[in-house]
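fyi for ur records
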Amino acid sequence: MGSKFGLKGVFSIQGPRSIYVYSLFIGLLSGFGAYGFNWALTWTESFTFGNLMGYDPGIPTGDLHFHSIGSVNPISPLWILFLPAFGGLLVGIVTSFFCAEAQGGGTDSLIYAFHFNEGKIQTKVPFFKVIATILTLGSGGSGGKEGPTAQIGAGFGSSLAGFLGAGARARRTLMLAGTAGGLGAIFRAPLGGAITAVEMVYQEDIESDSLVPCILSSVTAYLTYTSIAGSGSLFSVKEYSLNDYRHIPLYILLGLLCYVVGYFFVKVYHKIQDVFSKLPLPNYLKPAFGGLLVGCIALLFPEVLGSGFGLIQRMINGEVLESTSFAFSGPFFLLAVALFKVFSTSLTVGSGGSGGLLGPSFAIGGMLGAFVGSMAQVLFPELGIIIFPFLLVGMGSFFAGVARAPIAGMIMVCDMIGSYELLPPLMIVSVIAVVLSHKTSIYRNQIKNRFLSPSHHWDMNQDIMDRIRIRDHFSEFRMYAMVSENLSLTELQSNAPGIQASDFILVGAGEEYKGIVSLRKNRILPEFEADLKNLITCGEIVQDVPSVCTNDTMGKALQILLEYDVDKLAIVEDGKCLGYLRYIDLFNAYQNEVKNKQRKSA
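which gave:
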């Protein structure tokens, strides 16, 4: 018996409950994948940053499980200048000759796959994305960890859906569930990972259909990851609450600053992307050239290297950040780091390097928040300003603005610090940043809302379908693909080509409806037909799919077809199966309804 019958028949997706179960499984794999990636990246950075460049970027408390940089050699300007270029060259070779999809941020390609490619991701992409990102970030490139971890999870989800023969709708859901798992694990953000996955695909909407699977996957990945790496949030933060309302105008000012710099970041990133796409250089050299420019910036500001999360933790701990290269500190040093981080990230990712944009967005926003907080300390000492709340609020609001994801920005930061005490100022600043930046987004493949997404074109016509009764358009129903529950599976396979059907309505001796048998999900391979002939009946492998009656709407019929991934639906009245409706029948009825409305309005 081949795998098609033995595995797909048993494990095929047969409704929402199947999606939920597979979301848990995908979350488990995503958690292990995120742990393996973070371990490999941290090991690489401990060698390149500590031994070669001689720069210690720090490490978030949540990553202390992984070995951090131990002894740090004296700073080496040559390594700082040329190591990002060397890493970019290796990345260029990987993306040019093995997997072009591994370049860039990763999140934008996931958004594209969701809207325009039915959630399909090549199996090789997560593997090469991990390698390319380790080379990029390990050599000092400015980027985030979320790109590969999201693609690892999304790759698991898409590949599993393909193996099970799932439809496009289920595959998109499992792809987003995997994305949520990767984000929830690497950022230790079980709820934030789920919200980010469903919110990032739109500018003004969320993919609500996938919310529950994303939560299940993200929580599972988080628990898997922390069971190995230790529990706790990503950043260790002292307790704080907003109890002095005189700080609110400063948070409003921070929101305006996040909008201005966020707008600048989006324009610079897209411009650099366009310039490098037209640059008369071989594609494998472009990330190296971008890395060389990053190295030039890092000679003055080594703080722009890597993800920047280590610097954030150091500032949360109360450390006064000072320039590594020359005597420069204070508020304007923090602002300079934020602005140069904009350029270093744009050059790293926009030139074809591999790294996420979410992590650097948090780092840039954190520096902007620290700038506002430290300036307020100087100008208004009587307010008793503490810097780290402004830093954390800046992180969430900046990402919310550039990614058009207000809820994700707020929840992600709260999860990463393990506290919701900062939610009120986060809400204020994030809303300001999002409202002002309503026309810009760092992700070019975002769609405004689900009404404009190709993945929901048919769903948007559901309201018409919900008004049409089946009896209004059909008085007779097809019966060619109705078979007895006692028919053997081998005989059904033999008769299927003549009937020209792959899904069959199963009926009992009294024409009562029993369910549906799908040869797309259950099939005996030719080499096993002789051994299994007449041993398996259709009644033993029937799929329990609800039926409809003539008084039901075509919208209900369509919903069942989509939910259970079948191509026909039984019509039952008074306990007897009258026949069935196919997709094409519903489409034709819909078209006739639209034409009738157009004639009446003409």
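The mean pLDDT is 88. thats all i got for now
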